[in-house]
Specification:
The chain contains 1 helix and no strands. The protein is mostly helical. The protein is rod-shaped and about 50 Å long. This is ABC transporter permease.
């Protein structure tokens, strides 16, 4: 509970905005990692459309 104590000092709207921003950043990071993995597997198997 000590970890979350500083968050209780913020207004609820600020916490929600922070939560939304962090969630979007996490989703974007996962999508980028998956995209890199798919791009690497396509170029490895010779299915790259740019060739």
């Amino acid at each position: 509970m000590l970890l979350f104590r500083p968050l209780t000092l913020l207004p609820e709207g600020a916490v929600q905005a922070l939560w939304l921003a962090l969630t979007c950043a996490a989703v974007a990071g996962i999508a980028a990692a998956v995209g890199r993995g798919l791009a690497a597997s396509r170029s490895f198997t010779g299915l790259d459309a740019s060739v």
